[in-house]
Design a protein that fits this description.
Strand content: 15-25%
Radius of gyration: 19 Å
Helix content: 40-55%
Largest sheet: 5 strands, parallel
Number of helices: 10
Number of strands: 11
Distance between the termini: 31 Å
Shape: globular
Length: about 280
């Protein structure tokens, strides 16, 4: 998937040439979802990613440009499970006719004990994407544009195969560190870890945005030492001082991994997962 996903595509989408005036506009809250829509639609649609590069979806506050971008879309694709509720709330400010698809409602999500909710980060498991998100996504696109349904279903079959191949490459790449433990600054990698045999030993922020108390910090440091974890994974938008302190006290490596990516990442979803796999391997070997 070589073409670049547009962050809110303001100039390119809304200043699009006349020849693309009839192209459908689809919006997705985060980059991985945008890449899936792009894989299915090819050059037949313009894709808008609402979350800016480097922004934290848990704390993102939409700006007027976000609403403007969404108002042109025929479909809003979101994760759900509390990750991107800001997007669905925006729909009240748009004209009628923007359909919605909350993919998390169609995927068997893991429970979150700390928040009594569900873990939304399912897109980090390509098999969950292949078996649950892809079928419902292509069905919805076919209903919106029935004249393009044959093409969308053909591309969905190709994407299904590509996800299977991606999973095979990931298994091979991560095999040397299978069974090894890591600590996460925020528990975003449980689906990834479950699929590829990694062990999440502890989290620095069990609830995004709430750091540990001094007493909890002492307990966590002991957990990390007992677990034998070799790395503490932080994210571009979540890099707490506690994470650096824990790494210093326990000797684990700090490594940055990115569960969201951005439109600047050539190679889209597959590149995002393979790059993160590479970083896990480097940190855990």
């Amino acid at each position: 998937m070589a073409r670049m996903i547009l962050w809110m595509g303001l100039l390119t989408v809304f200043g699009a040439p006349a020849t693309r005036a009839q192209a459908a506009v689809y919006a997705a809250t985060i980059f991985p979802l945008s890449t899936w829509v792009a894989e299915l639609t090819g050059n037949a649609a313009d894709i808008v990613t609402l979350l800016p590069a480097g922004a934290n979806p848990h704390t993102f506050e939409p700006v007027p440009a976000t609403l403007k971008a969404l108002s042109r879309a025929r479909l809003l694709v979101s994760v759900g499970a509390g990750l991107d509720g800001w997007a669905t709330r925006l729909l009240g400010g748009t004209a009628e006719g923007v359909a919605t698809l909350v993919l998390g409602d169609h995927v068997p999500l893991l429970p979150l004990e700390e928040e009594q909710g569900r873990d939304p980060h399912f897109w980090l498991d390509p098999i969950l994407v292949r078996d649950y998100a892809l079928p419902v996504l292509v069905d919805v696109l076919c209903r919106i544009e029935p004249e393009r349904a044959p093409m969308y279903r053909r591309r969905a079959s190709q994407w299904h195969d590509e996800l299977s191949q991606l999973d095979a490459r990931m298994r091979e790449r991560l095999a040397p560190v299978r069974g090894r433990a890591y600590v996460a600054v925020h528990s975003a990698w449980r689906y990834f870890a479950r699929r590829y045999g990694l062990v999440e030993a502890a989290t620095v922020e069990p609830i995004p945005g709430r750091e540990l108390s001094a007493k909890e910090m002492v307990v966590l440091v002991e957990e990390v030492r007992r677990s034998g974890a070799r790395a503490l994974v932080v994210e571009p938008f979540v890099f707490s001082k506690l994470a650096r302190q824990i790494a210093g006290e326990t000797g684990v490596r700090l490594v940055t991994v990115d569960p969201f990516g951005s439109g600047s990442l050539i190679g889209g979803y597959t590149r995002l997962l393979e790059e993160n796999a590479r970083r896990f391997v480097e940190a855990l070997q």
